[in-house]
Amino acid sequence: MGQEEQVVPYPLAYEAALEPPAEWERLRQRCPVAAVELPSGDRATLLTRHEHVKNMLADRRFSRPTAQDGAARPAPGGAGGAAVSGDSSVLVPGKGEPHQRWRRQVGKWFTAKRMTALRPAMTGIAEKLVDGMVERGSPADLRAHVGFPLPVYVICDMLGVPAADRDRFSHWSDAMLSLTRFTRAETEAAQAEFVAYMSGLITAKRAAPADDLLSMLIEESAGEGVGLSDDELCATGLSLLVAGHETTANMIGKMVAMLLADRTRWERLLADPSLVRTAVEEVLRFDANLGFGLRRYLSEDVEVDGETLPRGTTVICSMPAANRDETVFDGADEMDLSRSLNPHLTFGAGPHSCLGQALARTELHVALETLLRKLPSLELDVPAGDLERVEGLVVGGLCEVPVRW
What ranges does the record give for the region Disordered, renumbered to this chain (predicted)? Predict the structure, then answer.
């Protein structure tokens, strides 16, 4: 079944919040290079096989679209590469040496070694949040009380941003990641407010630096021709705050929901906490509700699965569909908490892979270890099939994760 024979509405329809769209398997098997129509009405090409997604994400020639590319627009009324169409990270240098320079500058603050050093403080935050949820009483929304605030407090502390402003950050983040939830005018207004806030914060830190990531980046950028420009500093702060608010915050809730949906998984971790590391990787692989996918703009013709995709094509890489590819993962539709070989693509691949993956992994480990230790009797307070997906954003999540203990 070739790309021209049908056009699939995208995003694909979900029947349940934790279950993959039925269409994934059919597309992987019979139409791995599929034509899709986005909410904007624009056409793009969807990749669902592990090999194709990995190769596209790792290809240095291609990166996220910019506003100048004329790429397919995900959101109605959006621009092909603007942040208002869902990719806040396009505010930072998107490709080539400027992107690699930015990654070197910022990435050294997100190494596994640094995350290990931050782990005791993260554990302290997680314990306080769990204690606070317990004090309020059972049942409770784990997403609101633990999943959302933990990464927010951590990233605010790392950046040197007042956590008291987290409600504003939440609104701005949602607006900048809007697919259909906000109008373009609302999104642009939120982005302007966010940029003004971050610019003011950078000005204040330049005058009175502290022991935080933004202050350090400002200091390193003080020399002529080195470091980051003011626009890049502002974009970095925005991108890290948005990522800290949305992706890991949603992932903690989804992780707990997946592990409690079949409670034998939770009980296995209680019996053997050494499985936490592989369990986190398996949760990242198994997550069917990851979001829109990563876009790539083709600056030249590319052949995928024997089919030539012409220059100017917008490609959507579905990492969660690729993560269920049975040619790569044995028992791909089964959650194996001890899966040792797990080359999932949740954090992307190659030169544009997620800069904050060590931070995200550490937060997921800490959240899971803390909950297993402090709330071993935890269980879902609703049937897993009643959980509701976050709608209208380019990131996937659950509206609530009701739990009892």
Answer: 59-97
